[in-house]
Amino acid sequence: xxxxLRRLDADIVSCRACPRLVAWRxxxxxxxxxxxxxxxxxxxxxxxxxDADPAVLVIGLAPAAHGANRTGRVFTGDRSGDWLFGxxxxxxxxxxNLSVSRGDGQVLADARVTAAVRCxxxxxxxTTLERDACQPFLERExxxxxxxxxxxxxxxxxxxxxRSLAALKFPVPRPRPRFGHGVEVEIGSVxxxxxxxxSQQNTFTGRLTxxxxxxxxxxxxxxx
Length: 224
Prior knowledge:
CATH class: Alpha Beta
Low-confidence stretches: none
Helix content: 40-55%
CATH superfamily: Uracil-DNA glycosylase-like domain
């Protein structure tokens, strides 16, 4: 199992399928943000992180330009990750409430975090073609980890998850369930939970609060 995930990670990291994303991630890694000028940016696609046999798989949108594209670990080094790992910690899935670098000692138990698109996109907006190019990676990760619960962060992650489950021959309902915060759908052996993405546009405006995020995380914990 771990060897298979390692092969998947290697395939993700070496991918150059989307010219726009390749150009952007490498430009950001070269020019850097002033606050991180002394750091060496990852500047490559970002694989999933966490337990190799998770009960819960969290699927986000894409790496942040100066977050995971810098640190090389999904949801690590940005505000969205601060919210997500804080909630994972409170639910007992994460050893620490923050994740700032690949070497910070963070450990996930019974949980894994990943993204629908593996490269940082301009303006944090991947295209549907880029989502579809990354979909085989998500399909493989779901198949290899066999989670009991999937938490889809945002409508983009929700759609990518449903498409991947359908491709894996899960009995996805027709019409496909619509995204919403707290929406819960049983799809074969998997329970899919919807959650607003912990992006700053949601957390700064109060659309997503810590308690709302924790409610979804604790629901996932109760289902495992």
